Amino acid sequence: MAVGTRSGHEGPEDRPEEPAGATAESPEPPAPPVTDDSAGAPAEDEDGAKQKKHRSFWKELPLLIGIALLLALLIKTFLVQAFSIPSDSMQDTLQRGDRVLVDKLTPWFGSEPERGEVVVFHDPGGWLPPGEGTDPNAVQKFLSFIGLMPSSEEKDLIKRVIAVGGDTVECKKDGPVKVNGKALDEKSYIFPGNTPCNDMPFGPLKVPEGRIWVMGDHRQNSLDSRYHQNLPGKGTVSTDEVVGRAVVVAWPLNRWSTLPVPGTFDQSGLNAAVAASPVALGFAGALPLVLWRRRRLTAGRTAG
Hints:
Elements: H1 46-78, E1 80-84, E2 99-103, E3 118-122, H2 138-145, E4 156-164, E5 168-171, E6 177-179, E7 182-183, E8 202-206, E9 211-215, E10 237-238, E11 242-251, E12 257-258, H3 278-303
Antiparallel strand pairs: 1-2, 2-11, 3-4, 3-11, 4-9, 5-6, 5-8, 6-7, 9-10, 11-12
C-alpha cells in the first residue's frame, strides 16, 4: 500500500484506493472531453459545425460579389473594355455585331495611336447624328458601367489610323492613299471591290501634332475623316479623344482573331522628315572638326 503524506497526526494517514489506471506519478482524474468547435469536437456536433460553415459562406458572399464588381470596374476603367460594332464601316476586318476588346492601359503610360492601328474614339463633335443609339434599361446601364456590356449611351466610333501628327496624307481619284509620299498597299484590309478614296478624294493635308487621320476599311461605306473636313478639326481626331486600341475580336467565338498592324505601315521612309534645328546642325558640323583635331593631337604625341 502506498504511504500518504504526513499531517499533524503521528499515525499513518488512511487514503482511498486509487482507481484503475491511475499511477503514483499522476494522481489527477482524467480530463473531461474537449468541446471547443475548433478541435476535438464530439461526433454528434459535426452537423452543427457544417451548418456554421455554410452560414459563414453566405455571410461572405456579398463581400466576394462586391470585390468582383470592384475589380470589373477597375479593369474596365484602366485595362480593357468591350465594345460592340454597330455598322459595316470596318468590313471585312470587323463585322456588324462583333465584340472587340480595347486596350485602355497603354495610353495611361503616354502611348500614342500609331499608323495602322484600329482605335476606338469618342465622337469629336458632329461625326454622329444627334440622338443616335438606343435607350438602355437599368440592367444594361449597370452592366455597361462595370464593363460587362458595351455602353449604348456613349457616342464612340471605331476606325483605322492612317496618319498621325506631322504626317502629310493624300489620296487622288483612282490613286492609292499616300502618307509622306509613300503609297500604302491596302489590299490586305480594305473591303473587296472598294477603291482607296474614289468616293471622296482628299489632300494633300498635314495632320496637326496631337491628332490623327482615320479611315474605315469599307471605304465606300464609311463617314470617316474625309467627310468631316469642314469641322474645327478639319477631319482629324484629337488623341485625347482616343479610348484605346482594339486588339482582339472576342465575340462571336468563331470570329476570334487579333487585330495586328498591316505590314504596309512598316515600310521604310514612311516616317515624316523632321526639320533639323540650327543647334543640331551646328553640332553635326562641329563633330568632324573635333574628331580631326583629336587625331592630329594623338598623332603628335605618338611622334614625340
